[in-house]
Please model this.
Amino acid sequence: MTDTVEEAWAVLCAPGQSDKDVAEACRTILEHCKDGRRATAQAMLDVIGVPS
Model:
């Protein structure tokens, strides 16, 4: 699980990602994290207009 979360977080931190890739990474973080990264992922989904 840790690798999955780290890979998802890397997508969010890398420039030039598509909305689809960002949404997928955010959903992964929301599913697997219990920390502050959840708030970041939810905020990013809200900004790109994708329901969680």
Q: What stands out?
A: The longest helix spans residues 19-32. DSSP finds three helices and no strands in the chain. The radius of gyration is 10 Å.
